[in-house]
């Protein structure tokens, strides 16, 4: 179970039609050169859930690498006009933000930070920025959150996202400017 070489993965879309405007130094457009970082970030999202799985560590990492590759291919194919951004602290990559602003209801596809950058308010600041810009474009904002991610759900509720749909593993939430 080897993961794909970054050159074998599809490139990120250009994001040329973006309506999202983030300050310089906060983010930059993702490229295939970021795959190593993005894979590390994805590992940080998934390793905790893999802890109880009775596999060798190498097998867990190989599985997660494969899942990352599949997710990347899906996101790039499904959201061909989305912004795929690397979130930055100066010159250091600290997270990712994937958001599709090409439609009336903006879709936060994914937002996440490395463990040492979580719970510092950065996600809240980013989401408030997205909400402010969506309001200026008369757009609403939608996202999906894992049922087991109660901390993120609490954040989204504080930012006035409301549950609009619920599945077995994820909850869809939406924010609409009032």
The largest β sheet comes out as: 7 strands, mixed
Strand order, biggest sheet?
1-2-3-4-5-7-6
> Residue ranges: pLDDT <50 for 5 or more in a row?
none
Percentage beta strand: 25-35%
User: What is the straight-line distance between the termini?
Assistant: 49 Å
Rg (CA only): 16 Å
The helix tally amounts to 4
Order of helices and strands: EHHEEEHEHEE
**What's the count of strands?**
7
Oligomer: single chain
Structural class: alpha+beta
Portion in helices: 25-40%
What overall geometry do the principal axes of the alpha carbons give? Answer: globular
Q: What is the mean predicted local confidence, pLDDT? A: 92
Map the helices and strands.
Layout: E1 27-29, H1 35-50, H2 57-78, E2 83-89, E3 92-100, E4 105-113, H3 122-136, E5 140-146, H4 150-158, E6 162-166, E7 170-175
Parallel strand pairs: 4-5
Antiparallel strand pairs: 1-2, 2-3, 3-4, 5-7, 6-7
Structure overview:
The protein is α+β, with helices and mostly antiparallel strands and 178 residues long. It contains four helices and seven strands, in the order βααβββαβαββ. It has a seven-stranded mixed β-sheet with strand order 1-2-3-4-5-7-6, with helices on both faces. A hairpin with a 3-residue loop joins β6 and β7. α1 crosses α2 (57-78). The longest helix has 22 residues, at 57-78. The protein is globular, with a radius of gyration of 16 Å. The model has no long low-confidence stretch (mean pLDDT 92).
């Amino acid at each position: 179970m080897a993961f794909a070489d970054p050159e074998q993965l599809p490139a990120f879309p250009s994001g040329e039609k973006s309506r999202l405007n983030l300050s310089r130094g906060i983010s930059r457009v993702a490229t295939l050169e970021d795959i190593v970082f993005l894979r590390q970030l994805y590992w940080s999202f998934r390793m905790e859930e893999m802890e109880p799985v009775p596999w060798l560590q190498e097998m867990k990492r190989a599985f997660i690498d494969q899942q990352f590759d599949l997710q990347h291919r899906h996101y790039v194919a499904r959201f061909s006009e989305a912004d795929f951004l690397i979130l930055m602290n100066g010159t250091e990559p600290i997270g990712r933000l994937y958001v599709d602003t090409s439609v009336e209801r903006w879709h936060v596809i994914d937002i996440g930070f490395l463990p040492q950058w979580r719970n510092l308010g950065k996600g809240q600041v980013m989401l408030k920025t997205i909400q402010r810009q969506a309001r200026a474009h008369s757009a609403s904002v939608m996202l999906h959150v894992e049922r087991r991610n109660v901390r993120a759900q609490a954040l989204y509720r504080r930012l006035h996202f409301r549950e609009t749909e619920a599945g077995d593993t994820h909850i869809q939430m939406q924010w609409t400017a009032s």
